[in-house]
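[09:14] KT: can someone run the structure on this one? pasting the chain below
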Amino acid sequence: MNAFLRIEAISKSFGSTPALRSLSLEVGADELVVVLGPTGAGKTTLLRTIAGLETPDEGRIEMDGRDVTHDSPSARDVALVFQNFSLYPNWTVRQNLEFPLKAPGTNFSQPERHKQISWAAEILNITPLLDRPASRLSGGEMQRVAIGRAIVRRPRLFLMDEPLTNLDAKLREVLRVELIRLRKELQTPMVYVTHDQTEALSMADRIYVLCEGQILQVGSPETIYQHPSTPQVARQLGYPPINLVPVHRSDGHWKTQEGISLLPAKDDGNNTMLLGIRPENIALEGGDTAGTVQVVEHLGPSKIVLVRWAGLEVHLVASSTQPIQPGDRVFPKIDASQINIWPAT
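[09:31] RB: done, structure tokens below
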């Protein structure tokens, strides 16, 4: 991979509170990298450090092969989009888009500014809004303008700080697709941070899973989802969440704490483990041990089913056409080829 951005072992603390801990990350020249993590994981601090708004206590940041660790924000030529729209409400859309083109150090003539504004507005389908005050825009229109303000000067790198968080679900879905299309069209690398697993899985070329300032795993969306390296990573992706079951090895089987066999086990390795199985990888029928349906959630094309089974409460995913209701007796069966298993802690 031809890396445009390379971060090497950066650390950042605020007083006695560490925000980033020896964090390393690479972004290819034509890649959308998503940093996924919960609130407080260090996502915003990471973006601010890449942008030059924070200076790392340790480590090094390179862009296009050049050390920019101590460069000013303006020298880095990056664009940072925040989750709040940060528009000037009394300015028109045109004036908001023009603002970064008139910043100190830029040398855009009036015709060039007009050309860039027209280009960005056309890409984002906001040309009819150019003369409307920002205060009269909807939330989705405001976010398009905020993104337009970031792309209008064609920066070398986009940094997105949960830009869709404040929008409704349907609009988030639309803008996710548009951001993917936009990044590919511009062929500009992007670092997108979010706590939203749907955004991570649907948008990323690669995902970095971040927690408490440390990278827990790096990989494609498929790898992170199907083969999480730890239970902590597994819990960050998937709805309903992964089923985590303490098991022990006995008589060639993985058994629950109550001694009920779930599936065959190899004869070597630790005897006490934590088994992870995604809800979609447990069938409602085909097993040997009966369970009782507790709750059924209807989600259109599918149903989420909570089953009391083998001394456990597990989530399963069933087809919307499958007749199932609370109180039904079922015989769940785990797909042994889809399990993840980790040492118990």
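[09:33] KT: thanks! The longest strand covers residues 3-14.
[09:34] RB: yep, looked fine to me
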